[in-house]
Description:
Elements: E1 3-12, E2 16-23, E3 26-34, E4 50-57, H1 61-69, E5 77-81, E6 92-93, E7 105-107, E8 109-113, E9 116-120, H2 122-139, E10 142-148
Parallel strand pairs: 1-10, 6-7
Antiparallel strand pairs: 1-2, 2-3, 3-7, 4-5, 4-10, 8-9
InterPro entries: DUF5675
Domain DUF5675: 7-133
Protein name: DUF5675 domain-containing protein
Amino acid sequence: MAGAVKIFRMAQGKSSTLSHLYINGIFGCYxxxxxxxxxKVAGHTxxxxxxxxxxxxxxxxxxxxxxxxxxxxxxxxxELSGIPNFKAIYLHIGxxxxxxxxxxxxxxxxxxxxxxxxxxxxxxxYERIYPVLAKLMALGPVQLTVTNQHLF
Length: 152
């Protein structure tokens, strides 16, 4: 295994979930997802707890958009693979649960607004973690573990 990536879910808003992303034991960024539910609903639920594999996905419109935005850095969308009944779940840029479509959004810091978490400086967080994750994936398989840990 080339690397270990962990998502620790830390807090719930009304319909949002705030998490921490760790790469080989080092804090990488905050994540924002939709609410935790027992059954994943496309576009409205965070991914279930469990272990998944990270892949670089090189197809689709989002991949084309990110290649234009980051021509020197982008090698494919960071996809969370192996989620039962779902495909094309990516780590990507965004600020509110309206931007997620069921995917984790990256952020440099967070705030709660009207009972919902939001992440900010998402592009900076993406530019910081993407090269690290892409390099790990180039070395071999990368395991992602998702754990619900509500601390507050």
